[in-house]
Inverse folding.
């Protein structure tokens, strides 16, 4: 018996410019579209013993489950279902509030840094208390920063990358816990989408 496909519609607006009602509608639609009873068998079949969600895996799942779904929505569903602690992260150039205040006061030469715009941990990551807060600065050594700077155009094997979250530091000297992770990153316009999985 052939399984019926779910009809999904993509929006071209970026997350930062969407109307709040549209964002809530997208989240609700995503929950229904990727209903566990239908989605999980496809996801687990594609996972096939691997324990890390990748962009390639999400694309395979999208093609099998619902080719009309956006890759971003499918990645989100895969991260939610992933057995290992995983964070879906979006990074882009942004000013901190203090930097915006300096600009408003007339200071010149203040430049934005690559920072976390969105950080969505799955249940396994939340259980492990693994979280990357906004608007934390992305370390220059991370594949996320190198992807943003275009390094992967000349060195295509930069992703995925074995890294440690303790490299992520704050301006007051704090740092994330000493946790080994694998980070896969992809450029999306002027932003970078990343999948961060605990080793």
């Amino acid at each position: 018996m052939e399984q019926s496909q779910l009809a999904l519609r993509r929006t071209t607006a970026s997350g930062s410019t969407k109307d709040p009602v549209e964002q809530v509608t997208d989240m609700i639609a995503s929950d229904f579209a990727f209903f566990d009873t239908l989605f999980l068998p496809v996801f687990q079949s594609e996972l096939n013993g691997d324990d890390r969600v990748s962009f390639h895996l999400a694309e395979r799942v999208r093609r099998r489950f619902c080719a009309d779904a956006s890759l971003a929505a499918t990645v989100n569903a895969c991260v939610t279902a992933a057995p290992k602690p995983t964070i879906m992260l979006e990074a882009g150039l942004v000013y901190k509030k203090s930097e915006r205040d300096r600009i408003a006061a007339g200071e010149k030469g203040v430049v934005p840094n690559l920072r976390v715009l969105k950080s969505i941990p799955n249940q396994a990551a939340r259980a492990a208390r693994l979280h990357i807060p906004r608007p934390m600065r992305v370390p220059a050594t991370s594949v996320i920063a190198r992807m943003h700077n275009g390094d992967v155009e000349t060195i295509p094997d930069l992703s995925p990358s074995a890294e440690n979250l303790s490299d992520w530091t704050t301006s007051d000297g704090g740092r994330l816990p000493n946790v080994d992770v694998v980070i896969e990153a992809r450029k999306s316009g002027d932003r970078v989408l990343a999948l961060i999985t605990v080793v």
User: Anything to note?
Assistant: Residues 86-198 form one domain. Residues 1-16 have pLDDT under 50 and may be disordered. Residues 49 and 83 are 11 Å apart (CA to CA). The longest helix spans residues 20-33.
